[in-house]
Fold Crp/Fnr family transcriptional regulator.
Amino acid sequence: MDTRKDIHNSEVPVLCQSCEARHNGMCGVLEPSELVALSKATRVVKQPAGAELAAEAEPVASYANVMRGVVKLTKTLEDGRQQIVGLQFAPDFLGRLFTQSSAVTAQAASDVELCRVPRAALERLIAENPALEHRLMQQTLRELDEARDWMVTLGRKTAAEKVASFLYLIATHLDPSKEEARHFDLPLTRADIADFLGLTLETVSRQLSKLRADQVIAIANNRHVDVFDMARLKKRCG
């Protein structure tokens, strides 16, 4: 069944009909009756930038689909130092299935909207629906592939290539249009970008200034980015 044709299906919950992330996320494989059952347990929550969504080593009580915004994942060392280890965008799945505690801290990098579902409810539905389990496995493997690609970025690319790669990552997720020009607000501060890329704040600022001077990008209000030509930006990624 092509779930895209049920956008105006009265059998689909109203909230699900208006969810832009549904078809590409885990709910894209669910039948209308399954969406109805799941919607009875879910709730949509909005959190401002900076809000903690899940704490490292804390018990997992629920999972979530990212509907809008960006979530940053961090790991904390024993001495309190933190490292950003990943970013999540719509329609990514927030949480690790079948585990007792969270392996990372999840924090809203921007204002976010999440569709939360209790752990027991989702795991019960997974047990009854092989297609849902398959979709979540696909998402997990995609994130693993992206993490491996990012290891190459951090381990082998120059500072200029790292900053360009970061901008390309954000552009493709926050403005997924097919246009060569993309427009978005940076979900991370420059200090967080430096942390994510393993660079100094000064280096990040210098490389952004170089991209702007070369007219690859424009930056307004220190956060809004215009990419004039995605092909040129991709070339700068190395």
Q: What stands out?
A: Helices lie at 14-17, 32-39, 119-128, 130-156, 159-174, 190-197, 201-213, 230-236. The chain is about 40% helix and 25% strand.
